[in-house]
Amino acid sequence: MIKVPPKEFVERRARVRHAAEKAGLAGLVVCSRGGGTTDRYGDVKYLTNFYTRFPFIPDVPGEWTARAHAFVILPVEGEPILVADDKPKRDEEMAIDQVVVTGDVIASVIESLKSAGLTEGKVGVVGSDTLPWSVHAKLAAAYPEIEWVPADELLGRIRMIKSPAEIEKLRHASQVGSRATEAMLKKAEAGCTHGEVVAVGMEVLATHGGILYNNFMSSGRGGNNPTMVATSFPTWGSTEALEDGQWFHCGISGAVDGYYFDHARSKPIGNATAEQIRVFEGPMLAVQAAMAEIRPGVTASQVARAGREKLESLGFEFEGAFKGFGHGVGLGWDSPWLIESDHTVLEKNMVLCVERSVRHMGYVGDFEETVVVTDDGYELLTNAQVKWW
Predict the structure, then answer these.
(1) Residues 152, 185: one domain?
(2) Are 221 and 279 part of one and the same domain?
(3) Does residue 250 sit within a domain?
(4) How confident is the model at residue 320, as a pLDDT?
């Protein structure tokens, strides 16, 4: 297994503390959510390597509070404290010295703030979208002299640049995701249901220590009387079997050892038609045009613009649920966002997912790759089969 050396967590915390001090903060409270979910655990894991396994349950005052949440109290001066609602299976996974394991998480966070000397002044909050209202209300009541300041971007900027160990973890995750993608596309033949297709991908993930986050999946027919087969929860819940002549696409994301993968591919069921191929290749060519722009010094907006211009030159509209060409990736969806309003300058060792889907005349095409920014361009981390026609 690829491991992040313990000293790297110490260095990460030092960089974050320096950034907090530069921002005029006395320290940070970092909140993350676990409980078996694959969403928004990254900030605490980035700083400590800790993930809480216990699922969310409503508070029962006097017994337990804020289960499925973990906190890092990170003063600018003084030692950091991890407040965890559950012990990990291996104590050495906690890459931090001061650890409070507790059922009453709220009370322990309040006490840890006092121990860290964070009872007044400006304190940054990282993970504000995972911080329960009940926790914030009690923290504010306990320490009315604290001015709580949003600080998600502070840690987000640091997480954008990956260490060598993180790049290897993302490479491994992308390769596991590639194998799951290929297994699903091979299974997607006439007579199979969406669930049967996803099942073979889940088997690949489970046997390689991975977990499925989401799976955008649909199938159907284009032309004058288009049809689409898709469900919302789960996205593979349709009982209708695939049929010859249909198009099929899937975009799967998940995590291996906490690090995300995110891939998408399309294929015909049976022999491909000329219009299916056109719609499959449109997003593929647009993504490749966007990737061709990637190198240090280029902005995220330039990459997104190159993809959009290529897509439109092929006769497709730039539309859809996600109006972008991708995003950073790591222990979650990281910055930058490959959108034309994001002028972040790309740097070496950023890892990006470049993606686009197309809906046209009842057909759907979907394509996504993962790359790491190198000295003078990019290296492809995805190695799933590209064309299935």
Answers:
(1) no
(2) yes
(3) yes
(4) 82
Count the domains in the chain. Answer: 2
- Where in the sequence is the domain holding 69, given as residue range(s)? 6-159
Same domain, yes or no: 362 and 292: yes
Q: Please check whether residue 124 is in contact with residue 154, taking contact to mean a CB–CB distance below 8 angstroms.
A: yes
Asked if residue 193 lies in contact with residue 240, where contact means CB atoms within 8 angstroms, the answer is yes
Q: Measure the CA–CA gap between 301 and 326, rounded to whole angstroms.
A: 11
Domain assignment present for residue 389? The answer is: no
- The answer to whether residues 212 and 66 belong to one domain is no
pLDDT given at position 95? 83
What integer pLDDT is reported at residue 207 of this predicted model?
Answer: 98
Q: Are 96 and 202 part of one and the same domain?
A: no
* 152-159 and 6-22 helices, crossing angle to 10°: 140
Same domain as 173, residue 229:
yes
Contact 343, 336 (CB under 8 A): no
The segments of the chain whose pLDDT lies below 50 read 92
Do 18 and 55 belong to one domain?
yes
pLDDT for residue 178: 98
Structural contact between residues 311 and 288, judged by C-beta atoms closer than 8 angstroms: no
